[in-house]
Structure formats: C-alpha cells, structure tokens
C-alpha cells in the first residue's frame, strides 16, 4: 500500500514540473499582443492604410499645374488677303496655367497663352516677305456650373460618399480589432482560471491522499473495512485524473495565450494575475455601462450615408447642366520683319469673353433603370442598418440580463460553497468518531469540489461578460 501512495506522490511531482516565469499583467500582455500579434498588426496596417488614403479624397480641391506645347507648319498657300498670298506659315504654340476648383464648384485658371510664328509671303506683296510674330496672352478663366455643381453640390456629394465609405471600412476594421483583442483578453483569463483550478485540484488531491493514508493505517490495525480502503484508493485515482485533466486544460490555454503573443514555444509560461481578484472588483462596481454604439452598427449607418450620397452624385451627373464661362486676357503682340524685331505694331490689348454652355444627356430610357438601381441600394443599406440597430439593442439587453443572472448565480454559488464546506468538516469529524462512513465523507468532498468549481466558473463568466461589454460598447471615438 505504501507503493500505491508513493506512485501518486511521484505522479503529482511529475505533473508539477512546470515553473512559471515572470509576472505578466493584463496590461503588459495586451501591450505585447499589440506589438507581436501578426493578425492585429495586419488589421492596424489596414486601418492606417485607409486613413492614409483619405487625403486623396480632397485632391479635387488642390492646385494643379498644366502646360502644353504644339508646332504647326502650313504650306497650303492659302491667300492672306487680296494683295498678299502666303507661301508658308509655321507656328509654335504653348500654354501654361495654375488651376483650382473651389468648394463652390467654381473652376479657376490663371495662366499664359503664347505663340511664335513665321509668315512667309509671296515676293512682291510686301517689302519684306518674311515676318516673325510673338503673341503673349496672360489670362484668367472662370467656369461655374449653374445646375449640377452649383455651390459644389456634385463634387461635395462625391466627396461625402467616399468619406462615408472610408468610415464604414474603418468601423468594420475597428470591430474586427475589438473582437481579436476580446479573444486575447479571454485567453488571458482562461489561463488564469485553469491555473486556479490546478491549485484547487492539488488541495483536493491532498485531502484525498490524507484520507487514504488514514484509512490505510486503520485497515492495517483492523479498525476499518477493506471497502473503506478501496473507496479511498479510487478517490485518490480520481483526484489524480482530475489534476491531470486540469494540467491538460492549462496546456491548451497556455498555447492559446502564446499564439496571441506570436510565440511558437508552447513551453514558455508566464505567471498571470489571479482571476478571482478580478471577480472581487465586481462587488465594488457591479454595473455595466454602455458608452458608445457598437462599431459594426456604426459601419452599417455609414453604409446608408454612402448609398444616399452615391444616389445624389448620380442624379447630379446624369441630368442637364448649364455652364457659365468667363475669360479675361491681356494680349501683347510683337512683330518684326526679317530676323530682328525692330518695331512693335501692337501693344497690350485686353479682351474678355462670356459664354453659356448647355449639355443634356439623351439617355432618357436608361435613367429609370439607373434610378431604380440606386434606390434599391439605398433601401438595402437602410434595411441592413435598421436590422443592425435592433440586433445591437437586443444583444445589449441580453448582455445585461446575462450579467445580472451571472452575479446572482455567483452569490448563490458562494453561499452553497460555504454550506458544503461546513458539511464536509462535519462529516470528517463524524468519520473520526466512527459515526459515518468513508463513502459519505468522499461524497461531501465531491460536493464541495463541485461547489467550488461552480464559483470559479461563475466568476469567469462575469469576467467574460464584462470584457465583452468593454470591448464593444466603450465607444470607438471619431475615426476620421
């Protein structure tokens, strides 16, 4: 029988070979997750990418420079006038300008048009048949849509659509990030829970061993029945099995923790905070607070804005338009005969022009089909958003119910555990006085174990609910 006791002592020592390393607090753990977890870094990179591309949306209002250059050579010999006929005309034409669109929808251009031309006349018409002409024309040009883009309506609709779409993408990425961090926090507390269970299983195993040793001595002294000894042996084996299963659970929980830390070595073990301490804090602050709307719902609401602005932009770009154009320029023309410029025939000659341009797409049959498509997209987005709002409200109500129920169960479980402890102590004292059986003591001990584990599970459930509330309902702030 001593061999039996030594066997289980050896097994307990073998199971307990792992030694925990440095203390890893929950805050330190989350910092390491943010630094090392590949999935989280990928999500954060996607968030940064979307934010980084937002500046591109405003490019429509940015200044831009344009320039062009062309050359022409005309040898058609067309008559210049009744007295002169051209043999050849060659021209270099160029234009440079700085352009900008304002939020009012006004297109603005400030630049210079210019040309350098050579005119070769038929001899006899003029004293010198060769003339060089330089024309320089600084100008200001304005263009304003009076229908489509009045006050920048069409442009703004396109910008608002892109911003709403970017917000939706960011909220969905934030929601994905929240879920990953929630899983990481749950993994941390699961590991803490499994180690608490291990400590408890050790205590339970020791109790059963002491009872086995006591029955062993009594059996050798012919003071106990063999059935009591066998019952104690079975209890120790059961306790050893439960302890082994607890270590297996801890191994799985530790691998999950290391996976979030992007650590391949499953033998690396950190010491973690006691999850019971987290449960004790709920006695002080036992309420859940909703500080913001869940990120996936915010994404659905932004999808509605995207559909609305998309529909508006489409309607503005598909209809007729009336465009007002205005240009003012200063024209300076310099002429010379031969190869040198010896006189100016024309000085600055200011000019201006005003015009109206009307456009009307003739795709009348297509417009109804196009309108139906955008209307359907809007209705789809609105319906999805309404469903998301209802689901979030139900989820929050359910979370509050689960929280209240879990708190009540925890309080009841603690009371049951206290009673089972009293019952176990009473049965153990009765066994020492010979007034009960080993079976009854082991039964009360099993009931105590079940009651204690039920307390642990209730506390873990409270932690999981609290973490879920903090993850999804603490508010994500302004994403843009």
Quick structural summary:
The chain is α+β, with helices and mostly antiparallel strands. It has helices spanning about 1-15, 25-35, 40-55, 155-220, 225-260, 275-285, 295-320, 365-430, 440-475, and strands at about 25, 65-75, 85-100, 105-120, 130-145, 270, 320-335, 350-360. The strands form 2 sheets. The protein has a 6-stranded antiparallel beta sheet, with no helix packed on it.
SS-derived structural category? alpha+beta
Uncertain segments: 1-8, 12-17, 339-344
Q: Gyration radius, to the nearest Å?
A: 43 Å
Strand content: 15-25%
> Biggest sheet, strands in spatial order?
2-3-4-5-7-8
Ends distance: 73 Å
User: Which quaternary structure do these chains form?
Assistant: single chain
Helix fraction by DSSP (H/I, runs of at least 4): 55-70%
Order of helices and strands: HEHHEEEEHHEHHEEHH
Biggest sheet features: 6 strands, antiparallel
**Strand segment count:** 8
Mean pLDDT: 86
Explain how this protein is built.
By secondary structure, this protein is α+β, with helices and mostly antiparallel strands. 59% of the residues lie in helices and 19% in strands. It is built from nine helices and eight strands. Strand 4 and strand 5 form a beta hairpin. The protein is elongated and about 150 Å long. The N terminus is likely disordered.
